[in-house]
């Protein structure tokens, strides 16, 4: 089963959903058969490269009340679910194009899930800035993904088209923002949901794609045909 998870590094609900998704997978009976694929979606590509604080962004958008009404509760939810520290208000935001391109590089090295979770933790747990090439490469070094290859990836903008294509695909599928999930091509989830809801959606998608096998008829030693309701001798109505 394939789970596609569109998110942005600066989206507080996305970091929380990444945590919940892994918790749900720990409880999912078929987790070994799940392919988790992270996809890119940029929320604020127009922010200055040096970044701005969360409060400055809310004031610029004309919604300063969101800070205490919406974002503080996210911090409390994260703490209640074992994800702490989780800084939503006391942080700086910036354009995430280079961060997404590094994450695409990590995915190509088969370290995508690890890198996405680590980047969420770096940003929300440490208030890490990940907007400039040097900031992103510092993160790559600490994750063991640095060196000349990572520098070349960012300098050449090797994954820029892929990152843009990810976002177009999400919008084509009906994403209104992030987090946005598509489970096995059957079930979409727009926005943040709880761990139990994620597990239920996974189970529903799995069951839809793997209908319970009907028992095959068996033949006993006397020539009787056996099915789920019992055994009947050919040509009779007994069981």
Record keyword descriptors for this entry.
disordered C terminus; 9 strands; Glutaredoxin; 239 residues; alpha+beta; 4-stranded mixed β-sheet; globular; 3-stranded antiparallel β-sheet
In short:
With 239 residues, this protein is of the alpha+beta class. The protein is built from nine helices and nine strands.
Topology at a glance:
Layout: E1 2-7, H1 12-27, E2 35-40, E3 52-53, H2 54-61, H3 66-80, E4 92-93, H4 97-108, H5 112-126, H6 133-143, H7 148-156, H8 160-172, E5 180-183, E6 187-190, H9 195-209, E7 218-219, E8 225-227, E9 230-232
Parallel strand pairs: 1-2
Antiparallel strand pairs: 1-5, 3-4, 5-6, 7-8, 8-9
Helix pairs in contact: 1-5, 1-9, 4-5
Q: Give the C-level CATH assignment.
A: Alpha Beta
**Stretches with pLDDT under 50, minimum 5 residues:** 218-239
SS-based structural class? alpha+beta
Total E-strand runs: 9
CATH H-level superfamily title: Glutaredoxin
Shape: globular
Q: What is the name of the CATH architecture?
A: 3-Layer(aba) Sandwich
Q: What is the CATH T-level topology?
A: Glutaredoxin
Distance between the termini: 40 Å
User: Helical segment tally?
Assistant: 9
Question: How would you characterize this protein structure?
Answer:
- The protein has nine helices and nine strands.
- By secondary structure, it is an alpha+beta fold.
- The protein has one domain: Glutaredoxin, CATH 3.40.30.
- The strands form three sheets. A four-stranded mixed beta sheet has the order 2-1-5-6. The protein has a three-stranded antiparallel beta sheet with strand order 7-8-9, with no helix packed on it.
- Helix 1 crosses helix 5 and helix 4 packs antiparallel against helix 5.
